[in-house]
Design a protein that fits this description.
By secondary structure, the chain is of the alpha/beta class. The chain has nine helices and twelve strands. The chain folds into two domains: about 110 residues, 3-Layer(aba) Sandwich (Rossmann fold); about 180 residues, NAD(P)-binding Rossmann-like Domain (Rossmann fold, 3-Layer(aba) Sandwich), CATH 3.40.50.
């Protein structure tokens, strides 16, 4: 079997070592590829490539994107190819990022750190996660990983999801979006970016939130009406917005989010930890094994909804 690869040399070497009986062929992600080259499988990035239509014409039947979100993938140029992704591969580091963000908010880091003798000792009042409500907008791999860790802190976990299926994790209440928004002390946006979720958190949802809520977005900026969010921040309804993703990305210099006192921005790094990319690659290797034995693939993208 031949596999086209549009990922870095280290990942390509890992792939070649994992399947020594396959031929892994490095191809560029733009411009023409060498005449006569053909392969059955393409491993590429979540945004695809500029030359993906030509790559697909070289016999590709299955495409795997080395990432989780596929909202930027050029589905209109891949014909009848099956497309899968590494959904869930970043759930561990992102869940850790979410819990860290909640703890930073409640424990008032770094404000409580001392650089000189304070006016008084023992006077700071800190919050906590115990008995707080975390609301999850989305209960996929990331949402479940956050829920598992939040339950360990003694939090109440509520979630809303696209399907009517019960939670696969005991202790998680499945409720409507309106209830999640109204009850959450920490609201975590972890749903996929699709046409259905654009502006999901808008003026109505923001105005219905508890005063002093902490909003965390580790999904895509398009899920939140950012103008409405600015109003909610200015009014103090949202006490803090921890945003690892926003619109546009990269955020331009001088944007209001950089200077707003209630906003904490990170440059789309919640997925990062040692071995993070290896976890994404493992999802492809698991699927490759299934593909080779004729078993159904996991994490197949529904092109119709982009998820």
């Amino acid at each position: 079997m031949r596999i086209f690869s549009q990922v870095g040399s280290k990942l390509r070497a890992k792939l070649a070592a994992a399947v020594p009986d396959c031929e892994v062929i490095a191809i560029p992600d733009r411009g023409a590829i060498e005449p006569g080259l053909e392969a059955e499988v393409l491993l590429t990035q979540t945004w695809g490539s500029e030359n993906i239509a030509e790559v697909v014409s070289r016999g590709v039947r299955w495409i795997h994107t080395l990432g989780t979100g596929v909202d930027r993938f050029p589905f209109d140029r891949v014909g009848d190819c099956v497309v899968s992704c590494s959904r869930g591969g970043s759930s561990i580091p992102i869940a850790e990022f979410v819990l860290a963000s909640m703890l930073v908010f409640e424990k008032r880091f770094p404000q409580v750190w001392m650089k000189q003798a304070p006016e008084r000792w023992y006077g700071e009042r800190l919050g906590g996660l115990y008995r707080e409500v975390v609301g999850l907008v989305g209960l996929g791999g990331i949402g479940l990983a956050v829920a598992e860790r939040a339950l360990a802190f003694g939090m109440t976990v509520l979630a809303t999801r696209r399907s009517d299926a019960p939670s696969p994790l005991a202790g998680v209440g499945i409720v409507a979006l309106d209830e999640v928004v109204a009850r959450a002390d920490h609201l975590v946006i972890a749903a996929s970016a699709t046409s259905e979720t654009t502006g999901l958190i808008g003026r109505d949802q923001l105005s219905a939130m508890k005063r002093g809520v902490h909003l965390i977005n580790v999904a895509r900026g398009s899920l939140i009406d950012q103008d409405a969010l600015r109003t909610a921040l200015d009014d103090g309804v949202v006490a803090c917005a921890t945003l690892d993703t926003m619109t546009p990305e990269p955020l331009p210099a001088g944007h209001w989010m950089y200077s707003h006192p209630r906003v904490r921005l990170t440059p789309h790094v919640s997925w990062s930890m040692p071995g993070a990319v290896d976890l994404l690659m493992d999802r492809f290797l698991e699927n490759l094994a299934r593909y080779r034995r004729g078993a159904p693939l996991e994490n197949v993208v529904d092109v119709g909804v982009g998820y």
